[in-house]
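Lab meeting, item 3. Inverse folding demo.
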């Protein structure tokens, strides 16, 4: 997150006042020169890069959230409620693939 914030701040600050930054672009022209001539691709690229990095961060967080191991405690039981409370305290998903059994599972017609 800090990397994304720093990148966006640098580009936006540069765009607002090109004399504040140097840096070389892939096009061989300095970022300051591109900003001075109003090259909006700087902002576009900074926003695109930031979105990509934020999506990656969000996906990493989601993996942690979804990492809770399943429980065999029955739905609605005190054990299941206790496990869900522990998951909430750890910042994990309350409902995990593989939890069970669910009401009606294993019963005739269920």
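The presenter then showed the designed sequence:
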């Amino acid at each position: 997150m800090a990397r994304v914030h720093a990148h966006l701040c640098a580009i936006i600050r540069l765009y607002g006042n090109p004399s504040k930054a140097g840096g070389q672009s892939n096009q061989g022209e300095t970022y300051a020169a591109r900003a001075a001539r109003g090259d909006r691709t700087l902002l576009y690229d900074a926003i695109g890069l930031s979105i990509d990095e934020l999506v990656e961060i969000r996906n990493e967080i989601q993996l942690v959230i979804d990492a809770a191991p399943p429980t065999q405690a029955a739905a609605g039981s005190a054990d299941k409620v206790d496990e869900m409370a522990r998951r909430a305290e750890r910042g994990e998903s309350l409902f995990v693939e593989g939890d069970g059994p669910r009401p009606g599972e294993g019963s005739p017609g269920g």
